[in-house]
Amino acid sequence: MKSKFRIALVAAVAAAGLMATAGAANFDHCADQLKDLGLFQGTEQGYELDRAPTRAEAATMLVRLLGKEDEAKALDYTAPFTDLAGWEKPYVQYLYENGLTTGVTETTFKPDQGCSAQMYTTFLLRALGYSDAANGDFTYAEAVSFGESVGLVDYANCDQDNFLRDHVAAMSLTALDTPVKGDENSILLEKLVKDGAVDANKASDLLTFFDRYESYTDASSKMNDATKMDMTANITADVSMGGTKIMDLTMPLNMKVDADLENMDQSKIAMTGTVKINMNASMVEQGVPATINQDIAYYYTDGVYYMNMGDQKFKMAMSVDDVMAQMGDLAGMQSSEPLCLIDSIDQSGNDMTVTYSSSGMNALVNSVLANMGMDMSSMDVQIKFENVTSKVTISNGDIKNMDLGMKMSMTADGQSLTLNMTMDCTVNGLGDSVKITLPSDLDTYVDMIGGTTALVGAVNESAA
Predict the structure, then answer these.
(1) What are φ and ψ of residue 125, in 5° steps?
(2) Least crowded by CB within 10 Å, which of 46, 189, 218, 261?
(3) For residue 307, what are the β-bridge partners?
């Protein structure tokens, strides 16, 4: 498992918070980028990203990603399949002539039959130069796992249980930024441009996007490799209900993390800061202060989470390893952000602004919740993220600052709640220079019964 995700999870446990969301993935921005290159056309009803792809559509995408569409359209149809409507014939003909398909039977291709994640991954791997034939690079059964190993498949762009045209767009865009077999210095889009299958001018902006993405992930990986981190963060937020502002919050924090990758429960965290909350005076009961200014301190060590809120000091057993186990396969997320989650990357000098796809982030968080047994779709609650952005400042290959922003809205029982939040983070140090000092009075903290199970149960109960 990559250190970045582990550190992030430890930090999330320290903050003891979880945001819930619901909604299907929507990679319109990926489809837009593919359409600009002439690789994804959609239908008369638009992109139709919310339905399963067909075998005919998958065959078409493979021919285009092989850079052979013009060649295919010049072929006479002689394949033995008798169930093709017409438009798909050139693409199937090309695949048949080149031994890339044998159909479902000797005389049927089943063009309207659904295309699985396994099948589409196989097609994309062929476009990248890999073979699934006898003594080839992979077998059909292991296509998805092999795709993961070469950087084609990630936790965001492929849903094997509910594979949609949405994922076709996301995986196809990822394929364009994946190195072709035998030439690790050349990605698929560069090959298509070189072969004349994609216009160089049309590909220019996307190639620039890929270059910036590589620079960003290189800097992220450098930070991810460190198991010790010292970071300051200034969090600001405001909450409105039904269009009326009910509170605003500021919370400057300092967080130090020392993650033990072999035994996460032996990790150490120190997070200290101040919470200042201003409530709408009209919504506060008489005699209750509208302003709260509270020093806070949270610590984690030896599998125990400590909370110091001034006059109250609590502790509870909390296993980070157990939380990871509850998250299942998502605990193995790769360290760098999947390409399909990023909408755009703008750069000016050392400043790099990364804007994330809000709908893609929705899908990601929803997957996390599902793995933890929290199915928001079964509840009468609608939660979504909007305007998810991250401005990352990189200097000499190191991430120095991250400005994060987002809007979250929730509707339940006819009531709407909106949260706007920003977080300005500065990386003060990485590696052995980071030292964590825990208070000497941790043995005076009062037990909170329930531990991790109580925390997850409370989150589920509040969501319901």
Answers:
(1) -65, -35
(2) 46
(3) 298, 314
For the segment 128-140, what is each residue's pLDDT rounded down to a tens digit? 999 987 778 999 9
> End-to-end CA distance of the chain, in Å?
32
DSSP 309: -
The 8-class DSSP code of residue 114 comes to B
Contacts of 206 (CB under 8 A, 6+ apart): 33, 36, 37, 176, 189
- The candidate with the shortest Cα–Cα distance to 253, out of 424, 79, 460, is 424
> Do 25 and 359 contact (CB within 8 A), yes or no?
yes
Q: How many C-alpha atoms does 46 have within 13 Å on its Cβ side?
A: 7
Whole-number CA gyration radius for the chain: 25
pLDDT score of 183: 86
> Could you tell me how far CA 213 lies from the centroid of its own chain?
14
d(CA 276, CA 13): 21
Give the whole-angstrom CA distance, residue 196 versus residue 192. 6
pLDDT digits (tens, 9 = 90+) for 400-442: 898 988 888 888 777 889 999 999 999 999 888 999 999 999 9
Residues 272-284 have pLDDT tens digits of 999 999 999 888 8
- Beta carbons of 153 and 159 less than 8 angstroms apart: no
Token pair 């969090």 is found at 235
Contact 323, 9 (CB under 8 A): yes
**Measured CA angle at 86 (ends 80, 88), to 5 deg:** 80
Sign (positive or negative) of CA dihedral 208, 210, 212, 214: negative
Q: How many residues does the chain have?
A: 464
Cβ atoms of 315 and 282 closer than 8 Å: no
**pLDDT of the residue at 284:** 80
Helices 200-224 and 28-36, axial angle in degrees (round to 10):
140
pLDDT tens per residue across span 236-250: 999 999 889 999 999
Under a CB-based contact definition with an 8 Å cutoff, are residues 304 and 316 in contact? yes
Q: What type of residue is 416?
A: S
